[in-house]
Structure formats: C-alpha cells, structure tokens
Hints:
By secondary structure, this protein is an alpha+beta fold. Helices cover 26% and strands 19% of the residues. The protein folds into two domains: 39-59 and 150-236, Outer membrane lipoprotein wza domain like (Outer membrane lipoprotein wza fold like, Roll), CATH 3.10.560; 69-146, wza like fold. A hairpin with a 5-residue loop joins strand 3 and strand 4.
Amino acid sequence: MIARMLPSPRRRQMSLLVGLALLCVAGCHGLAKKHEANSIPQYGVIDASQAGELRKIALQPYAIEPPDELEIMVRPPSPDWSAPSSTTFTVQSDGVVDLGFGGNVYVYGLTLAQAEERIASHLNASPQTPDTKPSQPYQVSVRVANGQSKYYYVIGTVTTQGRFKVTGGETVLDAILLAGLRSNSLPEKAYLVRPHPLGAPDQVLKIDWFGIKERGDTLTNYQVMPGDRVVVPGTKPPGLLGSLLGN
C-alpha cells in the first residue's frame, strides 16, 4: 500500500494565493491593454460616395510605368527587328522600351492605346530601305504581360507589412486578411489613406471593422485603389507575461 501525502493547509493556502495573484495580474493586464486601446484615436471619416464591395468601379486606364512588362505585337513583322513580331519587353527605369533594332521608345505614363500610337509612329518614321519598307504602315498592339507598378500598402500592426498588387477588385477586407492580424492588432481602429494631388485636402477614410466582419455592412469595405494605404494600429507587443496569459 502506497501512502499519499496530503497537502498541508499552508501549501493549500499558498496555492490559493498564487492563483489569486495570477488572476489579479491577468485582470490588471487586461485593463491596461483595454486602456491602451482606448487611448488610440480613430482616424478618418465615413464616405458613402466611395467605391466599395457592392459598388465597385473600373479603374482608370492603365498608365505604364517601370518595371511593367509589356507584350508588343507588330504587324507586318519588321525584317530589321531582331525580335519576333510579338514579344515581351520590360519598361526600363528611364521610361523607355528597348525594341532592339527598332530603337527605344519612351512610354512612361502612357495608356496602352497611347503607347500603341507612339510605337507605331516611331517605327513608321524610321528610315526604311526598299528591301525593308513594309507594304503598309506598321500597326502595333500593346498589352500588359506582367503589371509591376500598381500596388497598395498595408502598414501597422499586421503579420505581413508591405505592398500588395492591385488587380482591380480588392477591398479593405481583402487587404487586411491578406496582411494578417496579430494578437495585438486593433482592426477596429483601422483606416484607409488615399494619395491626393499636392495642395488637395487629405483623404482619410474610417473603416468600421465590426460592421464589416460581424454585420456584413459593406459601407466602409472600400475598394482599394493603386497607392492606397490601409493602416492597422495596435497596442504594444505582449511581453513574456502577456504571452503566458494568452494576450
């Protein structure tokens, strides 16, 4: 028969005191965290006129910028051109595409239609020999093979802070979920900052996170545009004690 030692009254008292102390610390830590969260201001205003989840709009015509990759097709094929009639070109940092023997063409800031006109004009104006002169003027088609210049940004207390590609249909909810929330994130204080021309008023849009998440309210689930900044504030990172308490 194995004898079991029962805990002494003093040990039971010490265990009870430790448990109460931990509960007190957890409560104080929770109150401190709540106070810190309440002290963080909510920026922005709600603007019902902005495009959103159920009222999306088409983006502006694509403006070419470095380092976009463009698929350029030329008809009829040029004998002088070292590349095939259709190939992919990267817009260089100086805003030009290098067409090889076709020369360099400046396309920075142009729409695709404008780039087609400029490249065609450039090729048709190039000196032609009787052997290389086309039977008809060159026609050019330009498409975006790999857009590398249109991004939005998620910054603040998120798992992955950085820039994300704009494809045309992203919303605030997509942006925040893609960046990921942390244990000390405060998405209920999130807001969207939209770039504006020099001298124009700031455009800061409030995000109703609980409305989006819990009520399916799409009013502030704004459509994300190129250059937008989605900011997610947060409290201080939890220390060792906070981690042990699950905060």
